[in-house]
# Entry
Amino acid sequence: MMASTELFAIRAFQGADRSALERLWVRVFPDDPSWNAPDVMIESKLKVQPELLLVGEMAGTIVAAVMAGFDGVRGWIYHLAVAPECRRRGFATQLVRAAGDGLRKLG
# Structure
């Protein structure tokens, strides 16, 4: 478990984050159907509104992520994941707020 004194930082997904994000999603969503496979979801998101794929990290380790999308009318949260050992610290709330900020910028 990570120390509670470590800072949680939200930032845009970067290509180097891919394997860490895939591992997080497999861990948090072990029973996801094949069409939600992390590699497929990430590749799709990077083609459309990649700015709405955010990661949360502590001490350089990705411990949370959110994927949002805007269809021109509505904003959606598609995936929200927080590593089990990092839950109950408000990280999901912070990620949803950050995704909401990104969605508002799109309309």
